[in-house]
Amino acid sequence: MDPELEAFVPLFPRVDMNDPVSDRESFAELAAGLPPPDTSDLEVEDRTVPADPDVAVRIYRPRRARGAVVWLHGGAFVMGNLDTEHPWAGRLATGSGAVVVSVGYRLAPENPFPAALEDAYAALAWTVEHAAGLGVDPERVAVAGHSAGGSLAAGLTLYARDRSGPPIRFQALNQPGLDDRQETWSQRHFTDTPWMNRDRIAAAWRHYLGSAPATPYAAAARATDLSGLPPAYIATAELCPNRDEGITYALRLLRAGVPVELHQWPGTFHGSQAILSAEVSQRQIAELGAVLRRALA
Description:
The protein is α/β, with parallel strands linked by helices. The protein is built from ten helices and eight strands.
């Protein structure tokens, strides 16, 4: 493990994924302790996307933006909201130079699949439809997310493709959870890794899927046809149970003719970019912004 990250491991809150209410409180405390982003050059606005039910979004608008990113937060499908995601969405808007539409999707287990995906799709459709009002090109809209948000972003590209939905220019998947079956080497062996391990991820999938069987829109690794999807950036962490399914998905996209940039970050663990003082975290955050900036240029 990167020594700059290892020193902070004891400070991460313990979550067992069996008490979503308590876990949300711990997650909110962790987010509240992060340095806030510099939003002095951004217009930040809370809006509501009309849907059934309506979807809360927070819009981060840099000057002279040409494209937009529909951003889906992490939190194992059960944690996170617009406030906990503020430190990341603000930095992403500055780093990418794009309008960031941060989505407050419904959480499991109260709202299992497909609730979060439906909210994400509503936010995507709204962003494309209102591109002129946001000051961006409707052909320059990306979807992106971290962890569970990366899973939602991957499912969203499949969902939009199959429905002939709004055009998606690019997908950025950061440490995504893509396979509920947990059969990869990293899923089977990373049982005591920081923040997220095999058991916690298994609990997250149980909360998210509820009693429904997994479909490719819930777990994108189950999709048999990956052709026609937007170009992708996939980032994985070395000490993360999701690592191998992210790498495998990148290879499958390549074989399906989809351009892919894959970055495996050595010495990192799931969510370790929250340790902003670490040099590797700064590189991870900067790269995600730069990748989206280039994709939407």
